[in-house]
Amino acid sequence: MTLPRTPDELLSTTRAVRRRLDLDRPVPRRLIEECVDLATQAPTGRNRQRWHFLVVTEAARRRVVGDLLRRALLTGGGRGPTERDLRRMYAHPGSMEKVSDGVRHLYDNIHRVPAFVIPAVEGRTDRASVLEQSMTWGSILPAVWSFMLAARARGLGTVWTTAQGAVEREVAEVLGVPHREVMLAAFVPLAFTLGTDFRPARRVPRDEVPHWERW
């Protein structure tokens, strides 16, 4: 097994893994706990540490949550892409076709993924100001990304999805989450990967990204 050897390699090869999740190999609880330990070293607004990670491994519970996620994927949601979004999405021929194929594969096999990780944060941002949103999301998203990096370093694959948003209340009810107080931030399938030879993704040119001094 070839795992990332440097921080740059870890950061540039932590991919969204869908088709290459090993659906037949359980993930040891010890590895998940190690990833959570590293995740909680991430920055947190005002040191409030409002983060939580729900880990679902029981087959029956995964089946129920998986059915909800399938329903959410069918309904879509969110604003559609802008013209500039579309240009970037299709800048490299074949990229979006691979993404779509991976989404279909995950849709068909979601119930077989050995572990679901659902990061959550205390406090809701419904109708909140940009300030309140940034403080809340800024206290969970860095932790989730740290979790995903830690998983990659251990031969585990993840993919950040937001499908839970469309069925958040139902998922919260199934998992006993107090919906009025706690927000489900993402839905992260977790499994060992089939192979570890992940490469950097093709992105838009760097010249399109930084803005020096002003927009």
From TrEMBL:
Which terms are listed as keywords in the entry?
Oxidoreductase
Pfam families according to UniProt: Nitroreductase (PF00881)
Q: Name one GO molecular function term.
A: oxidoreductase activity
User: Which InterPro entries has this protein been placed in?
Assistant: Nitroreductase (IPR029479), Nitroreductase-like (IPR000415)
Q: Where is the Nitroreductase domain?
A: 15-186
Indicate the family of this protein: Belongs to the nitroreductase family.
Q: Spell out the protein name for this chain.
A: Nitroreductase
**Where does this protein come from, organism-wise?**
Streptomyces triticirhizae
